Amino acid sequence: MRVDPALILVLLVSTGACQAHRASCVDRPQIDAPEAKRMPKKLAIHDDVRIDPYYWMRDRDSPELIAHLEAENAYTAMAMKPTQGLQSKLFLEFKARIQETDSSVPYRHGPYWYYSRTVEGLQYAIYCRKRGSIDAAEQVLLDVNELARGHEFFQLGVLAISPDHRLLAYGFDTSGDEIYTLRIKDLDSGELLDDALTGISGSAAWAADNRTLFYTVLDPAMRPHKLFRHRLGEAQSADRLIHHETDEAYHLDVFCSRSEAFVFLHLGSIDSDELRYLPADRPDEDFRVLLPRKPGLEYAAAHCGEHFYLLTNDQAVNFRVVRAPVRDPRRERWEEIIPHDPAVKLDAVDLFSDHMVISLRADGISGLRVRRLQDGATHDIRFPEAVHTVWLQDNTEFHTDRLRIAYESLVTPESIYDYAMDSRVLELKKRKPVLGGYRPEEYESDRIHATASDGTRIPISIVHRKGLQRDGRNPAWLTGYGAYGVSYDPTFSSSRLSLLDRGFVYAIAHVRGGGELGRPWYDAGKLHHKTRTFTDFIACAERLISEGYTSRQRMAISGGSAGGLLIGAVLNMRPDLFRVAVADVPFVDVLTTMLDPSIPLTVIEYREWGNPNDRRDYETIKSYSPYDNVRAQAYPDLLVLAGLNDPRVQYWEPSKWVARLRALKTGDGILLQRTNMGAGHMGASGRYDYLKEIAFECAFVLDRLGIKD
């Protein structure tokens, strides 16, 4: 029987049981829920019948649904009221470490230096540029604080400067649903053009004529499915449809090559790609297919001179690089440039006029390799720490030997470098300030391994204060993701210091399903192998315990989105192993969602989770889907976070999960749900509001672990 949080509130007020540590006593009163009058949904397929008593929550227009979510929020607010002081303290700690008035490192693009800056007390960035020199007068392009005025949520999408640097196309979303409106600003006059494009995704690209803009729009399932060509000054209704992708497993993305010679249209699925290209100076022509799509064939392309350079998995599970003539890029004309290496995953290829830069991954660590195009001379860029994360940032210039790099680790804040590719000189331009006397030498990061149930070694990145005693008494926070081949890399967080300084061990489980150890690592944790993601995570938790870093009674776990699925699954499998959990926008109603092709991302992700219309896929998903596997057992303390406007994980997934947990779970573990009624998948958009959300989560974990200041 479902618990009605509105009645819980009445009970809490009438009994005075408002302390978080006492809330669990009234977490499951036996009362009649108003929606008990609703008929449960009967879901039947493959001779299997599931009864879903909370299917009604999908009706977002229902006043009862909104009342339910608001009641959950009110209950959570009351249960967390005793932690308000701690939340405020954590927020002030977080804020005190950041340079509130700050600026990014300017980067060169054409005749201008572009950068963004923040101002103390303001939520959003201000985008600026200077002409000719970084000492020139500042021109403000967009003050997002002004744009966001009057909106609870505001998120920028597209930011595209025209080739002549006179126009700025920018997309914005004011609800969190990731449906953008695109406007165009004349940077000479400061005025907005009349052009207003609605219903677009976060993808747009200028042609070389500075008056033609290509953009993609969304279908009802939130899939970018159409590419349009827009002429400045014309109504959106007059825009020409260039491509309509009818295969629901593919989505569209449009972008320009760094050489500015081509506009690329990317048609992508989970494990298949097709690129089409158009000379940027001939926007009225048709896009040509570079390489036709084929199941299992993935590739990306960049342009330099007379060649396209392709990063592809053709005969190379960890990818290789080939080049093909622009005039005839058929496979028969390919020339291999970088062969396949089973020990090194090639993640991306960036081209400059004289150099190729390869983003790669070896032994689970990201790296960069530079190759001179003229003679093939190759070298790796060396970094000081063994466990780190590095990526390319703001490399807009094509004719340059200067490479802009971002680097960080669990103990080193984000550091921006310029690298001279010929002389091999690495120059630190800026390290993100961490105020309050942060001393990285007082902290220690490392990488250890757990042994999975099948004998596979699972990497774990950890950080803690130096001098930590491995006596099993330390609190620990273990997180993970493990999906889509995405690598959960070790990065710095100034807010995390508030945990480390309270004695925490912070750990990242690099479980299968992610991409840390190459494409085979991803393939080993998807589709019918998905449960390895969960058992890997459990093995990592057990390793932390066996090595004395923590104990079951002192361990917190967290994950978001597909990482929330990870948390939901391991809580069903091993609820005894953890003391507290946080699931952020968790993808937990996997089976019902994947059976509904009208829901955003469903069809696209059949190759990730499986298509449950196939019996074997259905049985696999049902075996681990967190919502379908809740049962009568004691669960740890759990905080579940959702966004009402979330297009990626619909709000009803965490809401249904919480309702089923309330009905079935035993024990005295507290269960809280908080739904952001004005945001989506990414949570709050303002930087201070975001810090408050982090403070809320940390306060919940600290309180439930009994850590008092």
- Read across the widest sheet, the strand sequence of neighbours is 31-32-34-33-35-36-37-38
Apparent shape: globular
Low-confidence stretches: 1-37
| Proportion of beta-strand residues | 25-35%
Span between termini: 38 Å
Biggest sheet layout: 8 strands, mixed
* Top CATH class of the domain at 151-297: Mainly Beta
Structural class category:
alpha+beta
Q: How does CATH name the architecture of the domain at 151-297?
A: 7 Propeller
Per DSSP, the total helix count is: 14
CATH superfamily of the domain at 151-297: Prolyl oligopeptidase, N-terminal domain
Question: What is the alpha-carbon Rg in Å?
Answer: 26 Å
Helical content class = 10-25%
Kindly report the average pLDDT value: 93
Output the CATH topology of the domain at 151-297.
Methylamine Dehydrogenase, Chain H
Number of beta-strand segments:
38
Please characterize this protein's 3D structure:
It is a single chain. The chain has an eight-stranded mixed sheet with strand order 31-32-34-33-35-36-37-38, with helices on both faces. It has a seven-stranded antiparallel sheet with strand order 8-9-10-11-12-13-14, with no helix packed on it. It has 14 helices and 38 strands. It has 709 residues and is α+β, with helices and mostly antiparallel strands. The model is unreliable at 1-37 (pLDDT under 50). The radius of gyration is 26 Å and the shape is globular. Helix 4 (84-97) packs across helix 14. 19% of the residues lie in helices and 34% in strands.
